[in-house]
Amino acid sequence: MAGAVPPASTNPWLALQAGVDPAERVGVVRRAHEAFVRSGAVGGPVRGVVTESWRRSARAGVDPDTVGAPVDLTDADLEEYRAAHPLSAVVPVLREVLGGAYAAGDQIMAVSDAAGRLLWVEGHLGALRRAEMMNFVAGAWWDEPHIGTNAPGTALAVDHAVQIFASEHFSRAAQAWTCSAAPIHDPATGRLLGAVDITGGDQVANPHSLALVRAAARLAETYLAQYPPAAGPAVNLTALGRDEATVTGNGRRLVLSRRHSEIVALLACHPDGLTGDQLGLELYGDELNPVTLRAELSRLRAILGPHVLGSRPYRLRVAVDTDFGTVSRLLAAGALREALAAYRGPLLPGSQAPGVAAVRSRLEHELRASVLAAGDVSILDAWARTPSGSDDLVVWEALADRLPAGSPRRALASARVRDLMVDYGLLGGPGHLHATSLQRRRR
Question: Which residues form a coiled coil (predicted)?
Fold first, then answer.
């Protein structure tokens, strides 16, 4: 969560400090922006939060002459997504807090999801019509990678309330506007849910507007803490140590195909959903075939039901508890023995999907590092008995060092160390250790 706001005179998140002439500031920053677009160098007094955002925008390949943000949710798809989003419960609260500001002036209120997609955009009719010219509309992507520096996108990127003034916007089409935005978090988990934004003219560039959106975001979080959205029927995904995951819930138990197992596991790791391209890269890497992916998703939706698998973006619409998520939570809580007991083997061990392989590798690395850091004989022994630890030379060495002299288990561990050294080419002959062995051991 963001800390306390410093005084306005030193507030780096505020666009205009006291006494600064807005027109002069627009010119200074516009010249700095033009120089950055030409050379990549930032000159002049540009705020650090803006400088870093320009750099992220440039690295993402954003064209500063982009006329409008891409729109990927409309009509029924937009309504379906908004209805299922946790922030739908607090939009009336945000309207009550911010409605006076945008009703009395030429301003707009916008609410986005955590990915930067605008879900609600409402306010002064004239401002809405002008904003439509740059696709500042519900269903449009206003994250930094799509449209560059802007208050809702940058607030999400840095997880802090921020104000973006006129020519500080990376896209020239947005430089007629000034906006203040603040992130909103799930009060129970701290997970980022989205952002609330006020957009208008130069009048938005004041401490009051920034304080107002911060207050609105905090009030939304307070409301969610008191009235959490009702959860849908939960399902359980079991995917450790098996290539075909099982889904249980609502009185059913399903064994999924290997590809469907990968899809459900990946979506469980991305509760806010994935676009078709994102999911395709996680599944197929550079060999993405959109037609094949759509066919797999269509079959999976028929199996799970539309109430479980949503689209635009692809996501699981019910709470999902996974066995690999349980291991991660136990590790984070310091319950290493319980995490080891819950670890039934690698996540979908036969999967070559890049996204699955990354999650599998990360979980195993975290578990192994915790085992070695603990140095406890029983914990080392438990890990050595798993498929992941059976060939782990470093773990077997640590185990052999710590077991009591003369114990049968120590003799077995020492024999296993010798066998692994031979297998890994660390022993050139009986009792001979290569000089490079320590460099070649698994770390």
Answer: none
Burial of 181 (0-12, 13-18, 19+ CB in 10 A): buried
pLDDT band (50, 70, 90) for residue 10: confident
As a whole number of angstroms, the distance between CA 421 and CA 53 comes to 50
CB neighbours (10 Å) of residue 253? 10
Round to whole Å and give the CA distance between 367 and 362: 9
pTM above 0.85, yes or no: no
What is the C-alpha separation between 61 and 22, in angstroms, rounded? Answer: 29
pLDDT digits (tens, 9 = 90+) for 45-69: 899 999 999 999 999 999 999 888 9
Domains of the chain are: 8-226 (3.30.450.40), 231-373 (1.10.10.10), 391-443 (no CATH)
Rg (CA), the chain: 27
Residue 206 CA, distance from chain mean position: 31
Cα gap 278→270, rounded to integer Å? 11
For residue 152, give both structure tokens. Answer: 């809702």
Q: Which amino acid, residue 337?
A: R
Confidence of residue 230 (pLDDT cuts 50, 70, 90): low
Q: How far apart are CA 157 and CA 115, in angstroms?
A: 9
Q: Which two tokens stand for residue 282?
A: 């996680």
Query: Distance between CA 201 and CA 270 in Å, rounded?
Result: 36
Residue 361 to residue 341: CA distance in whole angstroms: 18
- For residue 227, the 8-state DSSP code is S
Backbone angles phi, psi at 279, to 5 degrees: -65, -40
Question: Could you give phi then psi for residue 347, rounded to 5 degrees?
Answer: -65, 120
Kind and range of the H or E run holding 163: strand 162-165
Non-local (6+) Cβ contacts of 433 within 8 A are 421, 426, 427
Residue type, 157: A
Mention every residue, 6+ apart, whose C-beta is less than 8 A from residue 190.
1
Structural element, H or E, at residue 141: none
Q: What is the pLDDT of residues 398-443, one digit of tens each?
A: 888 888 887 788 888 888 888 888 888 886 544 444 433 433 344 4
